[in-house]
Specification:
heterodimer; A: mainly alpha; Arc Repressor Mutant, subunit A; about 0% strand; elongated; B: mainly alpha; 4 helices; about 80% helix
Chain lengths: ~180, ~80
């Protein structure tokens, strides 16, 4: 059996698992597909280095992890997201148009409202990918903050700043698209 | 000792993720005591946490697999 057949066999055996792993973190189908494809191409190119000391699954997973880290290291976050002047004034007090108001989400009917969930999903979609993954890491997985930082190639202080900014942006987006209708 | 609203809201997030130093905690407590807007944000932030957890909890049941078409595409990419 030649190398292409070997690696193709791995595609059959492990691609679903790798895809699910990436999708869980990124919540992005296209990005996850690309990362999985890059993983197998990289595995094929360096298959001589795979000595069978770990299972192919473990080896492929470690390649995927690195592919994801590379992706986030290169991702540039648009300035409009980094810049928080929309929420605060120059002296860092609340901008008068952005004074906090409560949502009453403790009211369960809101969270089970399909329209609200749709609006929420599209607001999440608008966040930079790295931020979305940080938010998913915090609220969906039970992973330790240090592990999330490693996967995203960010520092710990970067992490809480990202979650903070993501929440301010989400709040703004939901209030514009849901509460004001 | 007084911190800005921006700093206070950042501390709210830092507290939740890593915890605060004694000094930071004091600064946050003092700010929130004096600032009604940030007091409100503190509660809004909890609502956001609650919403996010609820949202992802419902999504985590979805089990998605890679399409056969995409798998074939990957195998083709290997042959190039």
């Amino acid at each position: 059996m030649d190398t292409v057949d070997n690696v193709s066999e791995w595609v059959n055996d492990y691609s679903d698992e790798l895809f699910a792993w990436a999708l869980k973190r990124t919540q992005n189908v296209h990005l996850s597909e690309d990362l999985v494809q890059d993983t197998f191409v990289a595995a094929y190119q360096s298959v001589e280095r795979y000595k069978g000391e770990s299972s192919p699954k473990t080896w492929l997973h470690s390649i995927l992890k690195h592919k994801m880290m590379d992706h986030f290291r290169k991702e540039k976050v648009k300035e409009k997201y980094e810049n928080q002047s929309a929420f605060f004034q120059k002296n860092e007090s609340w901008d008068k148009h952005n004074n906090p108001t409560l949502w009453s989400t403790m009211d369960v009917t809101l969270l089970d409202n399909p329209g609200f969930n749709e609006a929420f999903a599209s607001c999440l979609e608008k966040l930079p990918q790295k931020w979305k993954t940080a938010v998913v890491g915090k609220y969906l997985t039970d992973k330790k903050a240090d592990d999330i930082c490693k996967e995203l190639s960010i520092t710990t202080s970067n992490y809480w700043q990202i979650v903070h900014r993501a929440k301010l942006n989400l709040r703004n987006c939901i209030e514009l698209n849901w509460f004001q209708d | 000792m007084l911190i800005s609203c921006k700093k206070a809201t950042e501390f709210i997030e830092k507290k939740d993720i890593f915890g605060l130093t004694k000094k930071e905690q004091f600064q946050l407590d003092l700010h929130v005591f004096l600032c009604a807007k940030c007091r409100k944000y503190q509660r809004l932030s909890e609502e956001l946490d609650h919403t996010l957890r609820h949202f992802f909890m419902n999504k985590s049941d979805e089990e998605l697999t890679l399409s056969e078409e995409k798998k074939e595409k990957i195998k083709d990419a290997l042959k190039k």
